[in-house]
Amino acid sequence: MKTAIIFLFLYCTLNTINLYCQNYCMPGRFTNEYYFQSRDIQVDKDIIYGHAIDENGKTILLDLDVFYPKFSVDNLKQRPFIMLIHGGGGNKTSMYRFCPLFAERGFVIATITYRTQLNGDPISGRNVYQSIQDAHAALRYLVSNEDKYGIDTNAIFIGGQSLGAVSSTSIAYLDQQDFDVLLPNIEKIAGRIDNSTNNLKTKFKIRGVIDMWGQIADTSFISSEEAHNIPIIMFHGTADSSYVKSVQISKRFKNLGGCYQLHTKTGAGHGQNMSKYYIAAKASCFIKSIFCGSCYQLEREINNKDITCDLPSRGDSTLWVRNFKPLNIILNKQFNGEFRYLDEDRNERVLIVSSENGHLFFCEKGDTEKTELFPESENDFYIKDFNAQISFNLDVHRKVIGLRYYIDAQEIFAKKK
Known about the structure:
Layout: H1 2-14, E1 41-53, E2 59-69, E3 79-85, H2 99-103, E4 108-112, H3 125-144, H4 146-149, E5 151-161, H5 163-173, H6 176-182, H7 186-190, E6 206-212, H8 224-229, E7 232-237, H9 243-256, E8 260-265, H10 276-291, E9 298-301, E10 337-342, E11 348-356, E12 359-364, E13 371-375, E14 380-383, E15 388-394, E16 400-407, E17 410-416
Parallel strand pairs: 3-4, 3-5, 5-6, 6-7, 7-8, 8-9
Antiparallel strand pairs: 1-2, 2-4, 10-11, 10-17, 11-12, 12-13, 13-14, 14-15, 15-16, 16-17
Helix pairs in contact: 3-5
């Protein structure tokens, strides 16, 4: 028995790309389907992970936000982790469009602030270097707080868009020696990539990359070992000037026999015409294939309506199914009406609920299409299209007086007109 335990430990240690000691090759989770509801997601905001000197010579605090399934609803105490980095022209909230989508599939996910400019130039070599320093520091902080957020440090993934994707590929495939070749004397000027922004010495390993219209300085820095141990999934438009870099990365992985996927939108520019639902679903399926030891090479045209996994993951053949209750055709009419709330800019918004032929529908005023509400309990309904929930509030007389709308890890209160 003791020998078997030692063997398992060594096997897990030496084969983490194909076998995770925590079995994440499980039905339904970490795939194209939502596993948790929006109201199941905890969001911790504005967590300080370090400080740095900005382009004006001032010390600034850098922070991050973390999205994760609440421990009260999740039976896993450790979960795979993804850190997403926004582009040079955005901020951490730019990644809010993706964070809830991954968290609702079961991941812990973070989005960070970092230094995006140096002397007004957001794309200089030193600027990219300092963004990598900050991202590295954020990872060190999160790994140091693995228990607080339930992060499995053996399943760390990194990704981003534009400059954030450049930082992600750089952290995954370049080391300090590579940067010293690319940017001579950079270590003397700015310090090491792993010794800036905070004083934490935590080590980590990247298990995969999500590259959204990014690039890498030189594909020759991707070693055979890295190609086999750090798979990459890329999303890029062919009209983007940096698209050629994704093609070069694909060729590098193909020649080295590593696992990669390239999803291409013909004629699209920088970050154009790619659905967030498509990206989140395909990236999750890609990570799931890594967990199940079935990662494969793929190049395909982006079809935003197709959010299925391209091939079923080995060991994940049992579908996870959400159960719905029969809807009382007579009682459902009590939910009909207009529900009003104020958005973040204090503008009034109106949600409309209507019943037709025994079915309940929902839309925002001004929308031309309605989406169906599926009952989970007497007063709770689910929206399949974008994994949102509506819970109706009733008074003591069982009269509907309002609703709570849960979407993208946010809770909206709306009063009935």
